[in-house]
Design a protein that fits this description.
Helix content is 38%, strand content 0%. The protein has helices at 4-10, 27-34, 55-64. The longest helix has 10 residues, at 55-64. The radius of gyration is 20 Å and the shape is elongated.
Length: 65
Amino acid sequence: MLNSHLLASTVKVVIFLVRKVRSDCTVGTFEKTRGLPPGTVRNPDGRDARSDKKIGTIRKENEDK
């Protein structure tokens, strides 16, 4: 049987902090740096967002709705 002290000392907790994406980052750069396939980011109407569209523009469009 394992000692509870030994078990507690061997368990590691990993916390990943997620940062907010810069608003001047483009959709193409965002998809590329995150390893997402092209076309993952969509416009509010469901179509693929242009790769040169900025993340800040997408945020503004989604605020209105």
